[in-house]
Amino acid sequence: MKKMILFLVAMVAVALATSPAVLVDTSQPLITEELLWDDGTYHHSLYEFDRGVWFTMPFDAQVVTARVYIAPATDYDAPFDLLVCPRDGSGLPDDGNPYGTGILNYLGGEATGEGWLDVDLTSLGVNLTSGDEFYLCFYPIGSPPQPYCAYDFNSDGSHNAFDGGSGWSSSSAPAYMFRVIVDDGGSQIELTSWGYIKNEL
Q1: Lowest-confidence pick of 47-56, 74-83, 161-170
Q2: Is the pLDDT of residue 79 over 60?
């Protein structure tokens, strides 16, 4: 009996020794986080100009989704472009040196009205490190440029920038309603497709 027990113990020891190790890295959170400056309350439309909002990465992660609040406008679903770029030394968008593969074109065709428009940015491949400061830039196109985005009168606008045709400058408007969702690669996230309006906050 003792020999049988010793044999079984030896077999278990061999099995454990030859099994692949399972390593759990607890140094990084497995998390998805939405970065924002607005409180979700629409107050006014922003017309025509290129707009940007800067954020700071809370951890090493990929920028996976852009959220833009589409304000009341003649054409809710007009095409526009999005870009993720560094914050330059003066605090403005350095859109001449975009992150990832550059600009992303939203072609329209899906939106049905005012509300949050989620745009999947994973194809840009924007992977940043904790503490990186970056802009999400929104470029309406067409003549006149549409759709209109929005601002939230109750929230801090110190992260805004706009370009009225002569280069980027700071904005005195309250918080533009742009957000980004970042993910460290370990969480299960739902990426929305082009033009999916999310009216919930």
Answers
A1: 74-83
A2: yes
181-189 average pLDDT score:
73
pLDDT, one tens digit per residue, over 2-12 is 444 444 334 43
**Beta-strand pair 160-163/50-56:** antiparallel
Task: Answer with the residue of higher pLDDT: 181 or 24.
Answer: 181
As given in the structure block, the two tokens for residue 66 are 């852009």
138: left (phi over 0), alpha (psi -120 to 50) or beta: beta
- Collapsing DSSP to helix, strand or coil, 6 comes out as helix
Please name the residues in contact with 70: beta carbons below 8 A apart, sequence gap of 6 or more.
76, 111, 113, 114, 115, 116, 117, 147, 148, 149, 150, 197
Which pair of tokens denotes residue 131? 């503490």
Closest by alpha carbon to 172, among 153, 149, 188?
A: 153
Q: How far apart are the first and last CA of the chain?
A: 67
Half-sphere exposure in the Cβ direction for 90 (13 Å, CA): 8
Who's near 98: CB < 8 A, 6+ residues apart? 83, 84, 85
Whether 58 and 35 have beta carbons less than 8 Å apart is answered as yes
CA distance linking residue 182 with residue 53, whole number of Å: 15
> In terms of Cα–Cα distance, which of 94, 70, 21, 23 is closest to 196?
70
C-beta separation of 145 from 25 below 8 A: no
